[in-house]
Amino acid sequence: MAADQAVADLDDLLTPDALVDPYPSYQRMREDAPVRWNARWRGWVVTGHDDARLVLRDPTSYSSERVANHQRAAADGDEADDAFTRFPAMALIGKWVSFLDPPDHTRLRRLLSGAFTVRATRALEPFIAETAETLLDGLPTDEPIDFLHDFAFSFPVTVVARLLGLPLDDADRFKRWSDDLMLIVLGAAGTADRHERAAEGLSEMAAYLHEGLARRRAEGLGDDVLSQLLRAQGEGQEVSDDEIVASGMILLFGGHETSTNLVANALLALADHPEAAAQLRARPELLTNAVEEFLRYDGPTKGVVRWVREATSLGGHDLLPGDRVLVLTAAANRDPEHFERPDDLVLDRTPNDHLAFGYASHFCLGAPLARSEAAAAVGAILRRFDVEIDRSSAAWRPTMLSRSLDSMTLTLHPHAAPEAAR
Question: How far apart (Å, rounded) are the C-alpha atoms in residues 422 and 416?
Answer without folding.
Answer: 10
